[in-house]
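Re-run with default settings, no changes from the original entry. Doing this only to confirm the output is reproducible before filing.
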Amino acid sequence: MEKKVYSFLHQAFIFVAIMLISKGIAFILPIPMPASVIGLILLFVALSTNIVKLEQVEGLGTSLTGIISFLFVPSGISLYNSLDILKVYGVPILAVIFIATFVILAITGWSASYLLGVKEKSGTKERKLAFLKKQQLEEVQR
């Protein structure tokens, strides 16, 4: 099946529409949440539900991925402008980052091992039941 090629403007329009919707949602929400995060969630949902097809945003997405380091320049400049804050609170900020990262990794690992354990246990029960039924059938046939 041949992929349809969408123009740059068509792809940009989809991204802009998603960002405008996410800005509106961020404005309405009672909790502070970045519009960019909401936009990523909306794009994910749109791609998952085939509202937006991958071909419709793939070209622009690939182009933006190619220049991602350039897109971080404003963040770097903002960080440089906040050096006086980092001098005072740098160590606590780093501590929170490392602790939160460790906690998230630990919870993810435990959750995954729990879910895999539940899956293995349910598979074990099914195998035991199948084995018992097979034994019962063999006894009946004797």
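The mean pLDDT is 87. The CA atoms of residues 53 and 115 lie 31 Å apart.
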